[in-house]
Design goal:
With about 500 residues, the protein is an alpha/beta fold. The chain has 16 helices and 18 strands. It is globular and about 65 Å long.
Length: about 500
């Protein structure tokens, strides 16, 4: 979901004028909420007992419960709009990738044909892309899927040559070096499918609630389902939402929803995440949103800036006293219209139209206890995050979709369970031209629905970051340099 916008017309509502400065006419005077990670009085005694069960199965292998028992801190970062082959397909022929023979990536010769007989093969992308990406609506995704043939990516963008060309592109190590360095050191999930064969919002609904309640478009839920946040709160497990942008997606997607006494959705800045990590105060579960105006990796936003955000999050966790019992999940909401050669499978869902999973998305599972430099091919999806919380913390199920999803225990190395963290690997420094980044940021948001919610006053002021885009960008670049994951030229 994407459109250009200058975000200059937000001053019409006098009562919110000062509160909208960060969007060009002001998100201004309101102080950002602290992000509540504590529950109501009934939680003063601490969380409920975690999931119980045997540590080993009948064959002596550790159970999922045993493998995840050492994880107290789950952190999720969901970026925007890239398919697995588009981002990680080149791992299969990367001489420096240790698991290139195991990853299900590109083999060469992958192509799609248009209705007029035009054939276009996969080709290396240009780093500097001023386009907004191929079409990725519900209809476009189903056209590309073509009943499992995955040969409709050109037809889904029929008549628009630049979209067709973009759909058949891939990146390599030279273009996204930080992501490839993380792949070298941690787990690549080459069977992580988006939850919905469609656009952003339905997939983000599935992350938070394991359902979109039948929504196939980028429209909000106004009478929302239960979410993993409420289930965590009921068990007195701590949680918090962080955002690198002016507001967390949750407040635009689940319109009008708050979570009562345990409200992790009083959104906090990503800088607070860095502080919480440094001081050992990260909650049991958190979701970090990128800045949907700059660092979300949605075309045409800067690849370098997105890597700077991800690298800063990774490094902040590696330096945290909580690192030894943490799991960081980096994933993407959906495929963004980009080619992938693996036909997505089906799963269980009360709504038949949603049993079809979406295309694969690039996904990394990061932590000191994971299978270093390996590929995990377990079938996963965004609901696997909720399933992992159920395995580890014993939270209540949100329904058959969650019950059917595999958790992330297959990413844990049994030989590392209970051991102290090993040495941290090196991460490359990303070269960032601030002037170039500013040229492709701010004028476009991947989430106009958030902008609309801000315009309408639908997001409370204590859930809005009052800083300007430029201030947020400057802060991110400073942190990226401090974490030694970026070099910035002015």
């Amino acid at each position: 979901m994407a459109r250009r916008n200058s975000l200059r017309g937000l001053a019409g509502q006098v009562s919110r004028r000062a509160a909208l400065k960060g969007l060009g006419a002001g998100i201004g005077a309101a102080a950002l909420g602290s992000g509540c990670a504590t529950g109501p009085d009934r939680c003063e005694a601490g969380p409920t007992a975690p999931a119980v069960g045997p540590d080993f199965d009948a064959h002596g292998a550790p159970t999922p419960r045993r493998l995840l028992a050492g994880i107290d801190t789950f952190v999720v970062v969901m970026m925007e709009n890239r398919s697995f082959d588009h981002f990680f397909g080149a791992l299969a022929f990367d001489p420096d990738y240790p698991a290139r023979d195991a990853v299900d990536g590109l083999e060469g010769g992958e192509a799609n044909e248009d209705d007029d007989g035009t054939t276009m093969a996969m080709h290396r992308a240009e780093v500097a892309c001023d386009h907004h990406g191929p079409l990725h609506t519900w209809d476009a995704a189903h056209t590309a899927f073509a009943e499992g043939r995955n040969d409709g990516f050109l037809r889904a963008n029929k008549g628009v040559l630049w979209r067709q060309r973009d759909a058949m592109t891939y990146h390599d190590r030279s273009q996204i070096p930080l992501f490839y360095a993380l792949a070298d050191q941690y787990v690549v999930c080459d069977r992580w499918f988006s939850s919905v064969l469609g656009p952003t919002w339905p997939n983000r609904f599935f992350l938070h609630a394991t359902t979109s309640q039948g929504i196939t478009t980028n429209d909000p839920i106004t009478d929302g389902p239960a979410t993993i946040w409420e289930k965590l709160g009921k068990g007195c497990w701590s949680s918090k939402a962080y955002a690198a942008g002016p507001a967390h997606w949750y407040h635009a997607g689940f319109r009008g929803r708050t979570l009562g006494g345990n409200d992790p959705m009083v959104c906090t800045r990503v800088e607070t995440f860095f502080h919480d990590a440094r001081t050992g105060n990260l909650p049991n579960f958190s979701v970090i949103d990128p800045d949907f105006w700059s660092s979300d990796l949605h075309p045409p936003h800067s690849l370098a800036l997105g890597e700077a955000l991800v690298g800063s999050i990774v490094r902040s966790m590696q330096e945290s006293p909580q690192w030894g019992r943490s799991l960081l999940i980096i994933t993407f909401d959906e495929y963004g219209g980009f080619y992938d050669h693996v036909p997505p499978p089906t799963t269980e869902d009360p709504r038949p139209a949603f049993r079809q999973l979406g295309f694969r998305v690039p996904s990394l599972v990061i932590g000191p206890s994971v299978r270093a430099g390996e590929v995990v091919s377990t079938q996963l999806e965004h609901v696997s995050i909720a399933a992992s919380l159920a395995t580890r913390f014993g939270i209540e199920s949100l329904g058959p979709r969650m019950d059917a999803a595999a958790d992330l225990s297959s990413c844990i190395d049994p030989a590392k369970v209970g051991l102290p963290p090993g040495p941290m690997g090196r991460l490359p420094r990303i070269d960032i031209d601030r002037r170039r980044v500013e040229e492709v940021s701010f004028r476009f948001t991947s989430q106009p629905g958030i902008e609309a919610a801000l315009r309408a006053g639908a997001i409370p002021l204590d859930r809005i970051d009052p800083r300007s885009h430029e201030e947020r960008l400057g802060s991110l670049l400073r942190h990226a340099q401090e974490f030694e994951v970026a070099r910035v030229s002015e």
